[in-house]
Structure formats: structure tokens, C-alpha cells
Amino acid sequence: MNVQKKIERFPKIDLHCHLDGSVRPETILEIALKEDIHVPTTKIEAFKQHTQVAEDCSSLKEYLSKFALTSDVMQKSEYIYRITDELLEDLSNENVKYIEIRFAPFLHMEKGMTFEEAVESVLKAMEEGKEKYGILSKLILICMRRHSPEVSVQIVEKGKAYLGKGVVAIDLAGNEHDFPPELHKKAFQLAKEYGFHRTVHAGETGIPKNIITAVEELKAERIGHGIHAYLNEEILEFVKEKKIPLEMCISSNVQTKAVEGFEDHPIKKYLDEGIAVTINTDNITVSNTTLAKEYEILMNKQGFTLEDIKQTIINGINASFASNEEKEELTGIFKEEFFKL
Ligand SMILES: [Zn+2]
């Protein structure tokens, strides 16, 4: 079996995947037309350009512009359910066994949907996805940096009813430059108290010290991206010493210009130094990627071996927010599938 085939058949895990960045373009177009939402074109091939970044994407701003249409079509619970279901279906075709999907409920409450309706639509599709697609999935609720700290507290207060029912964690995402993590400290401390896991996007766009703040003040157990830890030896040591798993998303990092090119990404250095790096998609549609594509890029541009890829997958199971029982079960399934290859 050639390497590409092996990668395709690998059992996979994704810990960092945004729901609104992973919607099928066909679905966005269909819902937009149904809901009378203005679309730039109704020809699907041309339409796709408005939902995915081009190869030469030059900035985070350009990257984020691709989310405009998606958030417009994710304002009804039936659509959120459908989008989650389709994502799980697509993932099952890639042999993904476990995924943590994340979304920011408050971004979907602009036209009257309640927090509960938004969260429950995702959870319903996830629960059904276990049987339907053989994928175990969990939900991470995102607090947006630009929203007020009170909104983040509300997410934790409202979200706690869903702990043990599919919701496992909270996250902090969005503009890292203007909104440092400490603004949302209260929500994260409360989350810890209630039993949520915590992950925080930090060190994605060049402010490495946010990594330390996220861990020390927001009690983050994992860091989203954390690319720029290498810019500061002390911070890199901190990540190693505290054994903080990093959720890395290579294509996204190159597209947003967090790093110049695939060769410049520090992921291999981190892996070789024993940091628990994991490989994730970030936004399947916007980044126009899949886990298999990410693995292939790492093998071609960063010298990853198949063993390295496997190591990152095992790291993913260990760093996941699944229960210990579920982790054990996943480890068994993965070992068996790797053995068959
Ligand atoms: Zn992200």
C-alpha cells in the first residue's frame, strides 16, 4: 500500500475544528437561496471561491472574510443540525473516529435562535452521528474575544447544563491583538469550577506571552495553535515543562500568515523536542483542507514520517477532552486499525 493510501486509511482525530468554517459550500448556497440571503453568484464553482481562501491568501483579514456568508446561513436550528450532520458524514468518509467540534453560540443568535436551541441542534446531530457514522464527537463552546466578558460568563452559566451531555469545554477565539486573554479570566475560572475543560487560542498571531496568560490565568489545559512559542525560549520551556498539548493547524497558519510558508512552521521542532503536538484542520471549508491533506503536507514539507503522524494522533487521544473510559476505548480502536495497516 502506498503512503498516500495509508494516510487516507489512518484512523484520525481532530481536536480543533470550527463548525462555521467547515460547512459544505453547496449547503451554504442552498440555504442562502432559500432564506433570500444575497449571494455573489449562484454558480457553485464560482461560489466556492467566496467560501474558501485562495492558494495565495495574504492575510488573516482575507481569511476571516470567508466566514461572512456562513454565519448568515447558520441562524436557524434546523440548519445548524444539518451542517453538523453533514460535517460528521464527511469526516466519516475520511475515517475520523473522534472529533471535538467548536462553535460560538452567540454568533448564531442574531435572528432569534436561543442559546439552548443552537447548542442542542449540534448535540442532537453529534449524538446521532455515533450510530450513523461511527464517530464519537464532543462540543467545545467558544467565547469570542471581542464580545464582552459578561457574554463569556453567560456561555459558561448556560453551557453547564450540557456538561456530560456532549459539551466538554470552553475556548477563547478571535482577535488576539486587541483583546488579551485576561479580559475573559472570570469566565474561565468559573468554567474550571463547574468542570469544563479549557482550551484557548493563543500565540497564533505573534503574541507568545498570551500562552502563559492562558495557562496561568485562564487555566487552559491545551493551547490552540501556540505557534509563536518558539519566539521566546522561556515560553517554549514553559510549554515543555507544563506538558501543554498544542492544537496545530498548518494550512490555516500559512493562509493567515501566522507563518510565511509550510517550511517555516515550528511543528517538527516541537515534535522532536517532545511537545505534545496534534494535527488539526481548523476550518475544513475555509482552508480547503482535510486531515489527510494536512498529513501529506507535513510529510512533504516538514519531513514527517508515518511514525511521526501516528505519534501526533496518539497525542490527540491523550490530549482530548473525552472521558478516561472513552480514551481507553479510542486507544484500542486506533491500535487495532494501525496494526491492520
Ligand atoms: Zn481556531
Question: What can you tell me about this protein's structure?
Answer:
This protein has 341 residues and is an alpha/beta fold. It has one domain: Alpha-Beta Barrel (TIM Barrel). It has 16 helices and eight strands. An eight-stranded parallel β-sheet has the order 1-2-3-4-5-6-7-8. Helix 11 links the parallel strand 6 and strand 7. Helix 15 packs antiparallel against helix 16. The termini are close together. The model has no long low-confidence stretch (mean pLDDT 95). The structure holds zinc ion. Zinc ion (ZN) binds next to strand 1. Zinc ion binds next to strand 1.
DSSP helical segment count: 16
Question: How much of the residues is beta strand, in percent?
Answer: 5-15%
Number of domains: 1
CATH architecture: Alpha-Beta Barrel
- Assign the CATH superfamily: Metal-dependent hydrolases
Q: Shape, please?
A: globular
Question: What is the topology, as strand order, of the major beta sheet?
Answer: 1-2-3-4-5-6-7-8
Distance between the termini: 8 Å
Bound molecules: zinc ion
Structural class: alpha/beta
Q: What value does the Rg take, in angstroms?
A: 19 Å
Stretches where pLDDT is under 50 for at least 5 consecutive residues are: none
In the CATH hierarchy, the third-tier topology is known as TIM Barrel
